[in-house]
Fold Putative transmembrane anti-sigma factor.
Amino acid sequence: IMSDLRTRDELRLAMAGPLRIARPTTNDAARRLERGLVQRRILSRMRRVAALGLFVAAGGFANAYLGPLTVTEVIASAPPPAYVEDAVMAHRTTQVRAAMSSQPEVPEYDPEEIRASTAIVMPQLPADWYVTDVQVFPSKFGPSVEMAIRTNDFDMLSLFAVRPGSFDVVRASSVHKDDVTAAYWQVGDVAYALVAKANTRDLDRAAIALADTLY
């Protein structure tokens, strides 16, 4: 294109001499060159528009058939351990039992017997926590302990304990599950979870206090 522009300018200079006399062949060549330059500009613009259209169409196709790009749960945040789901399930089962007259509550709590039978060490409960029911439930990891507890701060809550099959020390952390909150932690080879309809900060504080009794 630069060469064509230079040729066009030379032709114009030739036509603009002192006598302004140009041969017909020179005029024809200048007009043809001018038309060629205009057509090239139009084609160049059309190519840019077509390329943009293809880019937009490709984006629409990818969004429709591949789905929008999203951050997966693994990248965005680590999911809670699997035993937390068991803890919430046990909490709901305990609530169902409490509403059934044919399923009497078992408030007798013997942490030494639980340890001897399940190898699960239970934390020491605060003096103002009243145990209303204790059950050994099945779970994905084997026997688990589910305790229903009445407290002044939380009304009713559940304490769940299980051996998850791994040795670790995990500080208390909370997660919301539907209408309840679960604060979970692990000390050694036993994992625990407090489940209640409670404020996250208050439940975390209670979980940390229970975890401290296990050291």
